[in-house]
Amino acid sequence: MAAVFAVLMRGCAPRCMDDRVAMKRYLLHVLLFIGLLAGLAATVQAQEPITIERSDAGYTFQKEVRFSLQASGNITITQATLHFRLADQPASNLADAAITPHRSIKAEYAWRLVDEELPSGTVVTYWWTVEDAAGNKIDSERRSFTYEDTRFTWKKLSRDDVTLAWYRGDDAFGRDLLDAATSAAQRLMQEFSVERKPAAIYVYGNYNDLRSGIGESAQEWTGGRAYPEFGVVLIGVPTNQLAFGRRAVAHEFAHLIVHRATSNPFGDLPRWLDEGLAMWTEGDLDSTYKAALNRAVRSNRLLSLQTLASNFPADAQQATLAYAESYSAVVYIRDQFGAQKVGDLLTTFKEGTTDDTALQKVLGLTTDELDARWRASLGVGADSSSQEPDLTDSFAPRRMLLVIGMGLLAGAAVVFVALVAVVIRIRA
Q: How far apart, in whole angstroms, are the C-alpha atoms of residue 113 and residue 60?
């Protein structure tokens, strides 16, 4: 390029700079040189080795998500790799599409959802990496779409990074539920300094629609489900149950916020803390739960926090008590140690510590010690747990089986000794 410029500039020495003709000639040469550079740049751009001509996606709800690509190049294209990411998950999924190597290719990939539970409202981001035989690579533009339950036409309202979608009920119905969600988030942030991230809440008009929208994992009693990994809540709220809907939306949205704030690869929150925070976010404890808690206090039959750290009871009455106790324990911690300590607990659990380690670090108490103090605040003795139904262990049946087994073994031993004696006598 320097040689070309030297040729263009030849004959235009400094001694002729005072001459107008020479000056015009100099300027003309400079302009020609700039034009030559622009032409070369355009030629290089036109010779991009790989061109992405089309990148699309579509889906059939609960069956599959389809991705397609069309690309061309100056050299044979040998590979097309799909990347797709769900919501704000840090890792993306990779899939190599089957293609016939050529200078112009079409690639398709179908992600089967037969064994996957992908909730309505999940944002899917995707892009392709295309490579040719010479090793040239290019990434397509990243594109996103929202995977939704296409059986319904969704109406949507958004506020403060929260989107609420519903299909049954008027605009006032949707605004009311969105108010409940944003109020719940605000309460958690102000009290416990819990960070909120963008989220979507999909409200189904009845429970049958909800359960079919969730898929095979839904139970008969399922009324809502939070998907922290996707930033989505699914919930059923009939239009004639708005009061219940407000509490249910606040409850499930609290689960979403708390789970995202404490997510770690090592473990979950103790169930009583998780459910207690969700119950607290709803507002004052409902009368049904109050009555269950009061009965257990009067009869000295509270469930222990150790018992409530994992699965809740399957029995409806005991489950109601479990939720009521969880609320009561969270309120006790907040009132006795302060809201900041609850926030510190969540921060500590995010580090992946055990229940006792987190409680000792923040409150200076083990689970059992916290349990004893909480019971005392309710006027219940610390030994009441000995009277509670054992939900995780079947010691009494096992003890009876042990006694029976030992009796059988003793009987068998007697029979064996008698047989040996008979054999010896016969041989004698």
A: 9
